[in-house]
Amino acid sequence: MTTDKNRPALLIGLTGGIGSGKTTVANLFGERGVPLIDTDLIAHQLTAPHGAAIPEIRRAFGDQVIAADGSLDRAAMRALAFSDPAVRKRLEAILHPMIRQQTDLQIAQAAAAPYAIVVIPLLVEGGNPHERFDRILVVDCPVEVQIERVKKRSQLAHEQVMAIIAAQASREQRLAAADDVVDNGGNPASLSGRVDALHVCFLELAAADSNRL
Ligand SMILES: Nc1ncnc2c1ncn2[C@@H]1O[C@H](COP(=O)(O)OP(=O)(O)OP(=O)(O)O)[C@@H](O)[C@H]1O
Ligand SMILES: [Mg+2]
Questions:
Q1: Which among 15, 18, 23 is the best mutation to test ligand 1's pocket, defined by most ligand atoms within 8 Å of the CB?
Q2: Is residue 198 part of a domain?
Q3: 168-184, pLDDT tens digit by residue?
């Protein structure tokens, strides 16, 4: 924890595999008044029409990857990245620092709150998550349940879902990094009790930290 005035006393990094229920769980904390910082949403805004990343993406890859409305043409970008693996790295080199900067800004804006939650899908994949966060909260469910939910939501083929899951950290790797786990393998109705308990725990940890200032 920290005495840095540019962030809440306690910063929680929330992660989980694709379709595990990160957004569902984060929203339950949001309903309890906890500031949520969603890096997926930030990435989306950066590449929306007139998004802050669009000029640099256009410079790097040309008009071919910009849609008529001025947003990133995801299909064109995917096609380009498919034919040239370096393209993805170059796109990430543009987006990641901007996502990081906007995330830090939103963390600073939440500084008055006891704690805040930052949702980062690939948190475990990006090195030691405890360098940036006081606690890591993992939303967990069996891989078969993940596959079923993602297919239901997105019409992706089974092989595509499997490829995405294979490219992410394993369930075991995520759980090894977790300080707290929300089991989302069952009924969503059971989530709110678990979130209530964690919320009380996080508020207590944040208050204990603030008392030492
Ligand atoms: N316990 C549950 N039981 C049944 N369906 C659920 C449960 N939790 C979440 N879902 C559904 O599964 C899908 C994935 O959930 P959610 O969007 O919260 O996951 P996510 O981890 O944020 O996914 P993504 O990786 O795409 O961001 C959604 O359609 C959601 O409504
Ligand atoms: Mg989500």
A1: 23
A2: yes
A3: 999 999 999 999 999 99
For residue 99, name the pLDDT band (cuts at 50, 70, 90): very high
Residue 4 lies in a domain: no
In a domain, 5, yes or no: no
How many structural domains compose the chain? 1
Indicate the Cα dihedral angle 151, 28, 117, 74, nearest 10°: 30
- Structural domain of 90: 10-211
Identify residues whose C-beta is under 5 A from ligand 2, the ion.
Answer: 22-23
Model-wide pTM > 0.85: yes
Kindly tell me if the per-residue pLDDT of 160 is higher than 70: yes
Q: What are phi and psi for residue 76, nearest 5 degrees? A: -65, -40
Atom of ligand 1 nearest to the CA of 185: 1
3 state DSSP class of 12: strand
Ligand 1 atom closest to Cα of 119? 22
Ranges of H-type helices in 73-138: 74-83, 85-109
What DSSP character marks residue 32? Answer: T
Average pLDDT, the chain: 94
Q: Give a yes or no: residue 1 inside a domain.
A: no
